[in-house]
Amino acid sequence: MSDTIRILGAPTDYGASRRGVDMGPSAIRYAGLAATLSTLGVDPLDAGDLSVPPVEADDPGRADAKYLPAIESVCTELADRVADALADGDRPLVLGGDHSVAIGSVVGSTRDADIGVLWFDAHGDLNTPATTPSGNVHGMALAALLGHGEFASMSWTGTGIDPENVALVGVRDLDPGEREAIRDHGITTFSISEIDRRGVTSVVEDALDVVTGRDGVHVSLDLDWIDPTEAPGVGTPVRGGVTYREAHAALERVADEATVRSLELVEVNPILDDHNRTAELAIELAASALGKQIL
């Protein structure tokens, strides 16, 4: 793999109920993404944004999976662009948008590769149309990738990823259907309480034992994983998240122990942010995941 990081924007908020995360890619770029990546000794190649019609121009359709055809269109194109980047030897960095874009990121990253998936999130994202309390597809992204429920018949979500190769880290807000999915499918899950008891470094090392040892790891970083006092500009904030330093320690361990094949930053909502703090934090954490060191 080359030293080029190919930046791909996916400015969509089809999967969320609160508008604003479609401006996340612009906010992250404005906060200095390219300049920060350059300090790591890599070449940032900005491939621009996917062309995504505004959500107001579409109809949500079914109540249990809102905007699903539009999300399929976005994720299908994103999967192709992620796969193209990897085929060229570049490492894709996807900027969301809501977390439904992870379907495209991971589908693209799994083409001709056997990867693990490391999911940093306050939520499980394991609902299906049959279990969702909201109908928002950003809460179904991981279920879609694992082929749960109705998603088993949707070819555009298929990855072949085994649940045993997935680790959820830092969850603190699960719906009943998600708890059942974790139990039924044996998905390795580390709650925020476990981080409190054992420390974030120990937890992440165990998570990496689950997802590494293949052709690389896809890191999915939802900024609501971090406590809203540090990351106020997110789509669905939940109190009690990881601290600033814990977040960096976690991503530093990822850089030390894993081959990061692809990475995404999602759910940055500049409308709800404070002087673009959350976008700036997203960049800092991406740098940690890609190998930034203090010394």
From TrEMBL:
The keyword DNA repair appears for this protein: no
Family: Belongs to the arginase family.
PROSITE patterns in alphabetical order: ARGINASE_1, ARGINASE_2
Gene Ontology BP term (one): arginine metabolic process
Pathway given in the UniProt record: Nitrogen metabolism; urea cycle; L-ornithine and urea from L-arginine: step 1/1
Entry binding sites for Mn(2+): H99, D121, H123, D125, D222, D224
Enzyme Commission number(s) from the entry: 3.5.3.1
Cofactor note: Binds 2 manganese ions per subunit.
Species this chain originates from: Haloplanus aerogenes
Membrane-spanning intervals of the chain: none
Name of the protein: Arginase
Gene Ontology MF terms: arginase activity; manganese ion binding
Gene Ontology CC annotation, any one: cytoplasm
EC category name: hydrolase
Cofactor(s) needed for function: Mn(2+)
InterPro entries in the cross-refs: Arginase, Ureohydrolase, Ureohydrolase_dom_sf, Ureohydrolase_Mn_BS
Highest taxon in the source lineage: Archaea
UniProt entry keywords in alphabetical sequence: Arginine metabolism, Hydrolase, Manganese, Metal-binding
Pfam families attached to this UniProt entry: Arginase (PF00491)
